[in-house]
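lol so apparently i was supposed to do this last week
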Amino acid sequence: MKLPLHGIPEEGLRVNFNHETKELKQSLEQYFPSSTYEGEIELRPAGEHFHLKGHFNSDLKLTCSFCNEPFDYVIDEDFQEILAPVWEKNLKTASNPKEMFESDVELITGLEGEDFYLSEYLKEVVEFALPAHPKCREDCKGLCLTCGSNLNETTCECSKTRQSTSMAFSGLKDLKIDKKH
Ligand SMILES: [Zn+2]
Ligand SMILES: [Zn+2]
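anyway here it is w/ zinc ion bound
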């Protein structure tokens, strides 16, 4: 979805979207194959720049990368940025646009042409919000590396075997230490 920055009125432009918004589907569908999302953004001219504020929300199913079970995950992101289009790249450093706003906003420079690509931007928001290694719960025990059992649900015998093996090794370790002396 392309938003021409020059067409944005003084009072700002507000866009509400959800999983049915056609222009965003192509970019975002891959992340939400079976879940819904919604959000809104507001773009407002601010001197030479544009102030972007928005919200993104989704309840989705992720697969735990430790135990392979699906679980519910919530994305609930607020974001705000300052857009500094390319045509201002010669902007004097003295006029720091960040000073005009709250200190925690990001500054995006190098917008292509004079348009803001909302679909591309939201894709980044989503990628940032998704965990690299989804975990179904803080104390997920994962799968047994030996037999593949889900250790959240069962206990297998492998750990006992491992324990006795490591006990055998600790005996060896003691031997090595003795040798040093
Ligand atoms: Zn898990
Ligand atoms: Zn096992």
